[in-house]
Write a structure and sequence with these properties.
28 helices; RNA-binding; single chain; alpha+beta; seven-stranded mixed beta sheet
RNA sequence: GCCCGGGUGGCGGAAUGGCAGACGCGUCGGUCUCAAAAACCGAUACCGAAAGGCGUGUGGGUUCAAGUCCCACCCCGGGUACCA
């Protein structure tokens, strides 16, 4: 017997596999296709345990699918644009491409050392012009479809990375990459209009039956659809204000007053059949709680609301209001994110008219209103909204109860009250839940709340008077894709002084990144004259190239399509090929991409579908988000913390197969994992033990140590029978576990089969087995089954045994998955627990096919002492499990 | 605050409403050995000498039977956050 020596076997077989091309796709095959994909890595250099886990899970799935008879596409590539390469290049006075390609080579070697079965002929590298030219092409197509916009707005700016960031890349007010506090800046940037797809991106989450609930939930929250209404409030002209400073005031006929337009909004257009009026200034709000409109006692604008200065200019309120506007600019995103929510506000001296009842309400500016959600203005209903409530308390604004639960002490008094009789409450918090409307004119008595009859009635009334309508707001913002960095995909646009911003013509793609750039000396694309200077493709005049590059997430939004046709030089991919392979049957990656990459990819897929290039709606049919690998204290591993575990040392000691098996065995794939090396040796021992058993079953164990080690006399035939049963049971169990991604219990089941094999080998000498033809065949079948079951998990171990010990032709990875017979998995006799009132009192052996009556009788007999003198009320027989005898 | 997960031996973790703790690690005992390692065998939730009792975050409930279902609550992790 050759001892198990993974360090010799693994590199040798890796070469054999590479030479055989067995992991490459055969496009001609008529087998059903299956696309198994792991998220491609950033080429950061060394691989870590997170990679090992992610790619081991994917490899097991791919190898298993292949054994199940699928034509499997299992590619790998690199998400190769991005800041770390650029930063490293600056530090080391080298070029990002050099750093990147060196790291790719290193990672590729590590992946090969792990025995991952990738089709290396299909590798996609995002910084390769052959790939990124098609990213530019897609950009132009989005532009054609009106999904690209260049506009000025407040954006997230990371001072350390010296670039802007998308909303999704700001984590708790900090940069997702370097954790620097993010600043707000007003800049002109490029956007993908992902919000055009907001509804579909939300609604189609329901189709994704194979996605984890938590990921769908996160995306739904991020998209954040709110159904409500927009309501128009008319600004009272300054000269019409009669009761300055009193805050909330009683009914007014402001609507009929002559009003002058201020600079806040476009004048509201009046319908033709009305008497022409002077234009009025309208401020629109978005609300999900139009039912509470009668409780609106003030009105609030965000500090960034346009035109605030004009509103207060030259009034006694100007100083205070503008001070607040300035102060709120200084509050960083980090401070906001940390929940420092002390509200600050200032009165503008102005009033608006509440359309539902004509009341004048004072207009405030306050920092608790978000400028870029809804309209940046809100109607404040302190009795029904906690934020408004807190603000009202702080600034002594009235809190009028207009919605109550029926058990409120005020309810009996107000339940039929249409007019306002109570204008102040002593509540400790707002009442935001569903309730009954009171003091609300004709709506009194209706149920109020989100999507309530009261809300519907009020919106209907607003629509009839032309002061509001149903509308939907999203939390999702357009995707800011421009980056002021070199190492990315250049945006194919040209700025012409005469023609404006024009697209680079398709035939001029790719816009190549210049290689001769000295980043360390501070050179950027913008200062690189050779790159920036160009001629306008429309007028031929001198022009300048766009010098921003695209967010790296644009590269990862379609790479999985490219894998289906990676060498196409006429299109990003051939539609027929993409449609044949996609959607991806099984996608595997980290939960950290729950929103970012997975949302952007869904968006790209829908756009390409609308372009007629794809015939499906969603890119990833099944998604497995593997849990994070953390250190023993539960901390995430990172270079900065110095707690990164490198797999190389473990591979050098135990081999890749043991590392693969161990990381699968430690926990279910979707759970976080606290890394500990304690059990790794155990898995290595298991591979060794099983290795010896295979030799023994193959009749090649030179000494009969396993038999000799047996101490307990056992019935040799009984152990064989038990092993046959176990073999069928375990194949069924492992097959089932693989289907549900329960790799840890699959391995446990194989261990059980190995344990039963041990019992058998101890009870049957090698000599006696060799002498019996039936046993020789039986042994060979058991060995074959064990090797095949282990093949996806420990591919080198299995292939070595398959070819060298079992003497089979070809690779085990080309073999069919073992089948099983449920009939043979059944036991003849089963042990049942006998309970009395739910407590186990005895055990009985019964024939597996025994009639219920016989089982009951045997059970009663077994516990006759325990139930003596008691009345047996019931005896419940659960076949194959237990008998529960209920006594009084 | 809201939305997801999750709480089971010394540890990682198993359990379609049906014997809680599969499988492994660790520990203890044993075989082999001059000895040790390796290998192999056995034990191992807790309390108790035993009979037995008691056990899946807490408190209730449904059920012949609850880790699993229902109600209330506590704790931990993740996401999100003045989103009107």
């Amino acid at each position: 017997m050759k001892p198990y020596n993974p360090l010799e076997i693994e590199p040798r077989l890796q070469k054999v596999w590479a030479a055989s091309g067995q992991d490459c796709v055969d496009e001609e095959s008529d087998k059903p296709r299956r696309y198994v994909l792991e998220m491609f890595p950033y080429p950061s250099g060394d691989i870590h345990m997170g990679h090992v886990r992610n790619y081991t899970i994917g490899d097991v799935m791919a190898r298993y699918a292949k054994m199940c008879g699928f034509n499997v596409l299992h590619p790998m590539g690199w998400d190769a644009f991005g800041l770390p390469a650029e930063n490293a290049a600056i530090k080391n006075h080298t070029h990002p491409a050099k750093w990147t390609y060196e790291n790719i080579a290193k990672q590729k070697a590590s992946f090969q050392r792990m025995g991952f079965s990738y089709d290396w002929d299909r590798t996609v590298v995002a910084c390769d012009p052959e790939y990124y030219r098609w990213g530019q092409w897609i950009f132009l197509k989005l532009w054609e479809r009106g999904l690209v916009e260049r506009r000025n707005s407040p954006v997230n700016w990371c001072p350390d990375c010296a670039t802007v960031l998308a909303n999704e890349q700001v984590i708790e007010g900090k940069c997702w990459r370097c954790a620097s506090p993010v600043e707000k800046r007003d800049l002109t940037q490029w956007y993908f209009k992902i919000t055009d797809y907001a509804d579909e991106l939300l609604d189609d989450l329901e189709q994704l039956k194979g996605w984890p609930e938590r990921v769908k939930q996160q995306q739904a929250n991020w998209i954040g659809r709110s159904e409500g209404a927009s309501v128009d409030f008319v600004l009272v002209p300054s000269e019409k204000i009669s009761q300055v400073g009193e805050g909330f005031c009683g009914a007014s006929d402001g609507l009929d007053d002559e009003a002058k337009c201020t600079s806040l909004h476009e004048p509201k257009s009046e319908s033709a059949d009305e008497v022409p009026q002077k234009p009025e200034t309208v401020i629109t709000v978005f609300t999900t709680r139009a039912d509470t409109l009668f409780g609106c006692t003030f009105f609030v604008l965000a500090p960034e609301y346009p035109g605030i200065h004009e509103l207060v200019h030259g009034t006694p309120y100007e100083e205070e209001v503008m001070a607040l506007v300035e102060a709120s600019k200084q509050v960083s995103a980090v401070e906001r994110a940390q929940g420092n929510h002390e509200k600050h506000g200032a009165f503008t001296g102005r009033y608006v008219i509440n359309p539902i009842n004509g009341e004048q309400v004072p207009v405030w500016v306050a920092d608790y209103v978000v400028a870029d959600y809804g309209t940046g203005a809100v109607m404040a209903v302190p009795c029904g909204d906690q934020r408004d409530f807190e603000f009202a308390r702080k600034y002594h604004l009235p809190i009028v109860p207009i919605i109550l639960p029926e058990d409120d002490p005020l309810y009996p008094q107000l339940k039929d009250e249409q007019n306002r009789v109570v204008t102040e409450v002593d509540w400790e918090a707002a009442y935001a839940a569903e309730g009954i409307l009171v003091q609300s004119g004709p709506y009194t008595g209706l149920v109020g709340g989100k999507h309530s009859p009261g809300e519907e009635a009020v919106v209907k009334a607003l629509e009839e008077m032309g002061r509001g309508h149903r509308t939907v707001e999203f939390r999702l913002r357009d995707w800011l894709i421009s980056r002021q960095r070199y190492w990315g995909n250049p945006i194919p646009a040209i700025h012409c002084p005469t023609c404006g911003v024009v697209p680079v013509p398709e035939e001029d793609l790719p816009v190549l990144l210049p290689e001769n750039i000295d980043l360390a000396a501070g050179e950027t694309l913008a200062t690189h004259e050779e790159f920036a200077k160009c001629t306008c493709p429309v007028c031929g005049g001198p022009a300048r190239r766009e010098t921003d590059t695209m967010d790296t997430f644009t590269c990862s939004s379609w790479y999985y399509m490219r894998y289906t046709d990676p060498h196409n030089d006429r299109a990003p991919f051939d539609s027929a090929k993409a449609n044949a392979w996609m959607p991806v049957d099984q996608y595997i990656g980290g939960i950290e991409h729950a929103i970012l990459h997975l949302l952007y990819s869904r968006f790209f897929t829908k756009v390409l579908r609308d372009m007629g290039m794809l015939d499906f709606d969603e890119p990833f049919e099944n998604l497995l988000c593997q849990g994070m690998v953390k250190d023993e204290h539960g901390e995430t591993m990172s270079k900065s913390k110095g707690n990164v575990i490198a797999p190389e040392d473990m591979i050098a000691e135990y081999g890749a197969d043991a590392v693969r098996a161990y990381i699968l065995f430690m926990a279910p794939p979707d759970k976080d994992l606290l890394w500990s090396e304690d059990g790794l040796a155990g898995l290595y021992k298991f591979l060794n033990r099983l290795w010896r058993q295979i030799y023994d079953l193959a009749g090649q164990a030179e000494d009969d140590t396993l038999f000799q080690a047996g101490r307990k006399p056992a019935d040799a035939q009984a152990t064989q029978k038990a092993l046959l049963r176990q073999r069928h049971r375990v194949v069924g169990k492992v097959t089932d576990d693989f289907a549900r991604n329960n790799f840890n219990t699959a391995i446990a089941a194989i261990m059980e089969l190995s344990n039963t094999t041990g019992d058998y080998l101890r009870a049957n000498s090698a000599e006696s087995r060799a002498a019996n033809e039936d046993l020789r065949a039986f042994d060979a079948e058991i060995a074959e089954t064990l090797v095949k079951l282990m093949a996806p998990i420990a591919p080198h171990w299995a292939d070595e045994l398959w070819q060298s010990v079992l003497g089979r032709d070809g690779s085990v990875h080309e073999q069919p998955w073992p089948t099983w017979d449920p009939e043979l998995a059944k036991a003849d006799e089963v042990e049942l627990a006998v309970q009395v009132n739910g407590k186990v009192k005895a055990r009985i052996m019964v024939d597996a096919e025994a009639a219920e009556e016989d089982v009951r009788a045997q059970a009663l007999e077994a516990v006759s002492q325990a139930i003596e003198g008691k009345e047996v009320r019931k005896a419940i027989v659960v076949p194959g499990r237990l008998v529960n005898i209920v006594v009084g």
